[in-house]
Sequence to fold (231 residues):
Amino acid sequence: MKHYKHLFFDLDRTLWDFETNSDETLNDILIKYDLASKGITSLKMFKGVYSGINTMLWNLYLNGEIIKEKLNTQRFNLTLEAFGITDTLLANSMADDYVEMSPLKTNLFPFAMEMLEYLHGQYKLHIITNGFEEVQFKKLERTGMGRYFNQVITSEEAGAMKPNEQIFLFALNKACALASESLMIGDEIEIDLLGAKSVGLDQMYVNHHGKIHTESFTFEVMSLSEIMEIL
Fold:
């Protein structure tokens, strides 16, 4: 096997369990603002509307069509409007709370810490993330993962978002790494892996949910524990 010196990780949905942490945060917000009294009686009901709106707005953000502040406020504003609630102040408060509260959640995928402890010292570890800069560093600090990473590259710092080649080239330069000695580890085929492949990085697909696909990658694992068997 090729000898790697640098491992670049995606953060959300690869190491940090985004869905679980997001659900906990949204549920906290529903309780805080007593949205049951406004007809939103469960997290399932809220997410049934919110998830589609959030995905739509994230796609616009990734394409550079809206700024992050618009994404964060509109996903709550549009969701509330779908339930017949027109309250911009409430939507803005929910948006602020989500950004403040969600990075304090600490649910990780199984074996995340054990794997990082195992890899640390053998490789230089880095993060490449499209997530909001002000929350990603909090996630790393809160979970204790921050101590394992040499560099944390955000899309805001790089001036481009995955899968744009620019963020991967920026990350390689910041880490003083060569593509030929580096491996990108992530869960998103289009965003993490094909983007990495476009600049000559080897790729490891962390397929947590066993998705069927036709793409070919350098490695594919179903669990973070398998990474310790490969590297």
Q: What stands out?
A: The chain has ten helices and six strands. The mean pLDDT is 97.
